[in-house]
histidine kinase
Amino acid sequence: MNSNHHLFRSLKTMKIKNLCFESIKAQCKERGLDPLNIPSYKKTLTKQELKIKQSQHAKLLKVVIHFFEKFMLSMQGVPVLTATTDEEGYVIQLLGDQAIKETITQLGIREGVQFTEEYNGISSVNLALKYNQPIEVIGSQHYHHVLHASACYSVPITDQIEGRTVGTITFMTAVDQGSPLLLTLLLTMKDSIERELQLLKQNEKLHIINQLIMDTTRNGMMISDRTGKVIGFNDSAERITGWKREKVLFHHIHELENFGSYLMNVLEEKRQYTDLETPFKREDGRVLTVLFDALPIFDEEQNLMGAFAQIRDITRRKKTEQLLLNAEKLAAVGQMAASVAHEIRNPLTTIRGFIQLVKGDFQKESHFDLILDEIDRINLIVSEFLILSKPNVVHFHDKNVTQILKETIALFQAQASMNNTQIAVDYENSDFIINCDENQLKQVFINLFKNSMEAMPYGGELTIRVRKKSEKEVVIQIMDKGEGMKLDQIQKLGTPFYTTKETGTGLGYMIIKRIIEQHKGTLNIESEVNKGTTVEIILPLIF
Ligand code: ADP
Ligand code: MG
C-alpha cells in the first residue's frame, strides 16, 4: 500500500456484490427479527471449543496478525477492528482498536460467537460467506439499529491449493471513518494472506515430504550447510555408520571418516559422486560395502547451499552376488563335467591302444609323439577345468585376450562337438593385452558359448572374432545362427533368474554383465528371431 496509483488499480479490479438491502431487510422482518433488539447469536463456542477452532486455523490467525499490523501503519490513525471468522461464521480472533472492541463487546460480538443470517440479519460476514465475494455494509444498511453507527467490510479467505473458503476477515470502523479505501486495503490484505498461506502450506508439504523421505528411506542421508556443518543425519545413516546423530550433527564434515573428504570436494569443487563403491569400517569392527552418492545443493540463484550425501549398505547384496557367481559357476562346471570326462576318456582310449600296440616295439617314435600329445591334451583340459572351479579370488593381470579365448575354446570344444556345434575362429593377428581376471573372463566366454550352443539345438556354427576396435579398445564378437531373441527378451537379459530354458538358471547374463562391468568393458547384444545372435564385448586395452 505505498502509492495511490496502487490503490486506484485495486479499486477498479475489485467486484462488490450489488445488494438490495431493502429487500433483505423485508425478509428479516418477515422472519420476525426485531431491528430494535441487540442482535443475539445462534451459538457461542465454549472456551474449549474456541481453543480447538483457533488451533485448527492457527496459521490463518498468525498470518492475519502479521498483515494487520503491517497494514495498520498505512491507516494513519483510523481506528479499525479486524475480526477473523472461520467458514461457519464463528469469530475466532478480534484484533485492533480497543475502543471499538469495547463497543462491540457490549453488542455481544466477541470471540466464539457465530454470525448467522437467521439471527444477525444483515452482516458483512454472512454475506461474504454466502456470495464468496467482498462485501461492505455501511451504517443504516445494517438491519439492527445498534449497528447503524458502524461500517463493516468483509472478504472471504480462500485456500488457493484446495480452492475452498476457510473463513473471512472483516474490518469494522465507525461509519464516519468508513471509506472505500478500507475495502481496497482489505482486498490487498486478502491477497497477501492467501499467498502467504499457500506458501506456508507448500513449504509444509515439502517439509513433510522431506521428513518422510528422511525418516523412512533405508538410505543413509547426510546434509551439510555451505560451511560444511552437518545439519541433517537420518536414522538410516545412524544405523549404517553406527555413529550417533548427536555426535555428528553440527560437527564439520571433515570429521566424518571415509565420507568427509568426498564431501569437502563437493563443497569446494562442486564435484558430484554417484555410485561410488567403498568399504566402510564401523567402530564395532564390521566392514561394510557401501554405495556413496554426493552432490552440491544450490538454491534458485545457483548459490551453493550445502552438500547432500547418501549411503546405501550393499554388503548383503555383494555377498549374495558372490554366492550366485559361485553357484552359476558350479552349475556350469557340473554341466561340463560329462563332456569333459568324455573328452578325457577319448585320449585315454587312444593312449591305451597305442601302448598295447607298442608293447613289443618301442622303436616307433611317432607313436610316442601321439601319446604325448594326448597326454598334454588331458592335462590342459583337467587344469582348465580346475581353474574354473576354483573359488573366486579376483586377481587382475595383464593378459592377451586372444590367448584366453583360445584356452576357453579348448575347454569348451568337447561340449560343442557333442552338440554338433562347429566353432570357427577369426582372430586379428595382434596382441590384445588387457588388464583382467582371467578366470572371470573365461567364465563370461563359457557362458556366452553355452548360450549360443543352446540356441542351436540341432547344431550349427559358432563364430568367434577378435578385432581392434580403436587405439584403446579390443572387440570380441560371439556369433551364432540360433533361434535369436526379441527386443523385450534382450532387455530382460541380466535380470536374475530370467530364463526360457527348462534347466536354465537365468543367472548367466547377470554374471556376464557384472564381470564385464568390473573390467570397465561394454556389452552389446544384437539379435534377430530365427536368424541368430551377436554378442559384442568391448574391453579397454593396456598400452
Ligand atoms: P540361462 O542360459 O540359464 O537361461 P542366461 O542369463 O544365460 O540364463 O540367458 C537368459 C535367456 O536369454 C536364455 O534363457 C535365453 O532365452 C536367452 N538367450 C541368451 N543368449 C541367447 C542366444 N545366444 N540366443 C538366443 N537366446 C539367448
Ligand atoms: Mg546361459
